[in-house]
Amino acid sequence: MQPLTLGKVAVRCGILAVILFVVVVIALKFGAVPVSLYGLGKDLIRVLIGRSSQISSEYGMIIREIRLPRIALGIFVGASLSVAGTSFQALLRNPLADPYVLGVSYGAAVGSILALVIEPHVALRPEIAAVFTPIGGFIGATFTIATVYLLGRYHGDIDSKTLLLSGVIVGSFFSAMILLLITMLPSSSTRGVVYWLMGDLSTPIPPILGWVLRVGFFAGFALIYLTASDLNLLLAGEKEAMHLGVDVKKVRLVVYLSASLLTGLAVSVSGSIGYVGLIVPHLMRMIFGTDYRMLLPAAAFGGAIAVVIADTMARTIAAPSELGVGAVTAMAGAPLFIYLLRRRLA
């Protein structure tokens, strides 16, 4: 097998970037209101050269104000969940690990629902009210991260099995809390909460929150990618990695906190979108191998592509109504996971 070089990583990522661009163009075209491909091409060029104000009035609102922000959010959410899933599978050395296995999504959901319960009873300025629910979700995710981390420590160190079991227990507890909180919401809000729990990218986010998400994603991804070589050595086992000079405790802590940060950010703005962090890393391993120097960026592109496709299907299958993005990923992901499982056992 030829060694992986920076040039090979760049070329493969370039191919994935082209695929993502094609998927984005298709996603911009299709929806409840189809957009002319010719008009879309002209408007895309205007957006790319910074002249979005010159977009024709016929497509301006659809492209600039509805679909582009939604697609951008889908790219961020898909990349974050997929990178987090890849990281958790390496950290726990468990192919079934995904961003939700440690209960982070349930904690974020509890925080978001609590924000919805509290919001009508407090006077908030409009700019704060717009980000109140995502902030609640991120606080809930952060609390869950800290709780699972403390419960997962064994003799002062993170134990993979204990961490996994702690996440399952905490996730089950928060799942019960979600059902309790839903009964406390007014009937007018219940439908919106349930739809959010199925995954929702339709709610626009303020620009300042968009910048926070971008900075958080690149910071979390960079920290995880710096450990890529150590994760490769951890594949052989923790003892072997320690003998080769890997600071296993430091790698565990950095990967756990960074992957949890990515999950918390994604879930706080999109709700629960399952199977992305479970399926995409397996598909990328089949295509590009197990070297995390290639697998991590490939997972980021693959997750972005998967969520943009799922969101496009969610808003076109039953147009003008919409399906939950998480429902689409579950319907597509479950059969695909069964196929991958049977292929692995064959």
Please give the largest β-sheet.
Answer: 2 strands, antiparallel
CATH class: Mainly Alpha
Q: What is the quaternary state of this protein?
A: single chain
Low-confidence stretches: none
Cα end-to-end separation:
24 Å
Q: Under CATH, the topology is which?
A: ABC transporter involved in vitamin B12 uptake, BtuC
Considering the protein shown, what is the CATH homologous superfamily? Answer: ABC transporter involved in vitamin B12 uptake, BtuC
Known CATH architecture: Orthogonal Bundle
Adjacency order of strands in the biggest sheet? 1-2
Q: How are the secondary structure elements laid out?
A:
Elements: H1 6-29, H2 37-48, H3 57-92, H4 104-118, H5 126-151, E1 153-154, E2 157-158, H6 160-184, H7 187-197, H8 207-225, H9 228-234, H10 238-243, H11 248-270, H12 276-288, H13 292-314, H14 325-345
Antiparallel strand pairs: 1-2
Helix pairs in contact: 1-13, 2-3, 3-8, 3-11, 3-12, 3-13, 4-5, 4-6, 4-11, 5-6, 5-11, 8-11, 12-13, 12-14, 13-14
Provide a descriptive summary of the structure in words.
The structure is a single chain. With 346 residues, the protein is mainly α. The chain has a single domain (6-345), classed as ABC transporter involved in vitamin B12 uptake, BtuC (Orthogonal Bundle), CATH 1.10.3470.10. It is 75% helix and 1% strand. It has 14 helices and two strands. Strands 1-2 form a two-stranded antiparallel sheet. A hairpin with a 2-residue loop joins strand 1 and strand 2 (157-158). Helix 3 (57-92) runs parallel beside helix 8 and helix 12 (276-288) packs across helix 14 (325-345). The longest helix is centred in the first third of the chain and has 36 residues, at 57-92. The protein is globular, with a radius of gyration of 20 Å. The model has no long low-confidence stretch (mean pLDDT 81).
